[in-house]
Specification:
The structure is a single chain. This protein has one domain. It is an all-alpha fold. The longest helix is centred in the middle third of the chain and has 36 residues.
Length: 209
């Protein structure tokens, strides 16, 4: 696979610098708080059958988001990547739970809320993150539809699963390709200051000697 990526011009990707991981974690915390507000508004405008589950989900996401906020402030650089992977995995599971709560919406339009989760996974783990996020989505949506067919005696939504899986594959491949072709910024080493030049009088004396 590495040879294929190099042939496509995508083999230059490296790990994201730690200072960017910290910035992404901080931005993700703010976006997550805003997402909780949006989830609450959606719950009011389109109340799901399992409204208690939605409230518990909002509380759970708020709890681990508060943990992430404290962990990012206290963690040193080597621990940031581990925090990012934990938070990304929790976001994926939380979003799938959100999709299951609103599975009554026609056409599976609620699956669009997984796109920010996919972008987050690419932001932290680049191509590997895209593959994992898409795989989690496909498996999760299939489980949601299967559970509805077994427990709720609803028809399995093959069309919704196939269409949204293909959409996530295209989005993941596009975002990963753009990320891999964009050079990763690195902190520049501080420029070394040259010693100050001696005064002109001193240079003339040294030349005479």
């Amino acid at each position: 696979m590495g040879t294929q990526l190099r042939w496509l011009g995508l083999g230059r990707a490296g790990r994201r610098p730690v200072h960017q991981v910290r910035q992404l974690l901080t931005a993700g915390i703010l976006i997550r708080w805003a997402g909780l507000v949006v989830a609450g508004v959606i719950g009011v405008l389109a109340p799901p059958k399992a409204s208690v589950a939605l409230v518990l989900l909002i509380l759970a996401v708020g709890a681990y988001n508060a943990w992430a906020m404290l962990a990012v402030r206290r963690a040193d650089d080597p621990a940031l990547r581990g925090i990012a992977r934990v938070v990304t995995f929790l976001d994926q599971i939380g979003c799938l739970a959100f999709l299951a709560i609103f599975s009554h919406l026609p056409g599976g339009s609620q699956s669009a809320f997984y796109v920010p989760i996919l972008i987050e996974s690419v932001a932290f783990d680049r191509l590997e993150g895209a593959v994992i996020a898409v795989a989690v989505f496909v498996l999760g949506v299939a489980i949601i539809q299967g559970s509805g067919a077994i427990i709720g005696h609803q028809p399995f939504g093959w069309t919704a699963v196939l269409v949204w899986s293909l959409i996530m594959i295209v989005v993941g491949a596009t975002v990963a390709a753009v990320d891999l072709l964009t050079p990763v910024g690195r902190r520049r080493a501080p420029a070394q200051r040259l010693p100050p030049a001696p005064p002109s009088g001193c240079r003339s004396v040294s030349n005479r000697s």
